[in-house]
Fold this protein.
Amino acid sequence: MEIHVFTIFPDMFTGPLNTSILKRAQEQQMVMFHLVDFRCYSPSKHKNVDDSPFGGGVGMVLKPEPVYYAVEATLGDLHDYNGKILLMSPQGKQFDQKMARELAQEERLAIICGHYEGFDERIRALADEEISIGDYVLTGGEIPALVVIDAVCRLLPGVLGESESPLTDSFYNGLLEYPQYTRPREFRGLTVPETLLSGNHEEIRKWRRKEALRRTWLRRSELLKTLKLSAEDKRFLSQIRAEEEEKNNS
């Protein structure tokens, strides 16, 4: 996958993109990152990228010319660009695991990072999709872009080894992840569930599924409304409700 990032703060990406899994993905040529500073494409003498808004108001607004010139100079004729152009925006569609899986199918992505108080409305015309990572305000689109990049790249074939498989991640199958344990078996009075020490793979599978359902029901019950539950899942949920009710009444 090839990812272009358009930003006025490329240094914000150099650390995260050259660490851990993303670094390894680049070394193995599974993903290539291109950081484009659209300040360099500003037509003004002082390379300004923002200006005060028409109609008045506080803050500064990103000008359209630097962004357009940077995108067109980098990607060429946008009618021929065979990837997706994303605009990080608090008004965009909320990013989730389903969207990450869809974007991971693309061969090329381009991400435009806004900044300051906002961006000129005409910049929206460049994007195929606007994406938000949540209902809160950040200084700019750089950190949200990194969130999208990390979530998408870890789904690319071969990026994660078998020991880091995304198949068990929270949200991958619609549920939060089940509890995980490692050595020691006992720590400060807290012990590992006996089922995980049994060596019985079917019982371990059932335990993990039930605990994933329990954690989802307790913490993010709305996720269950969109999940197709098996007969086993429904039985587990019935047991979970009874167990949690008994716990609360004790």
Remarks:
- Residues 1 and 154 are 12 Å apart (CA to CA).
- Strands lie at 2-7, 32-37, 50-51, 61-62, 84-94, 108-113, 118-119, 129-132, 186-187, 190-191.
- The chain has a mean pLDDT of 93.
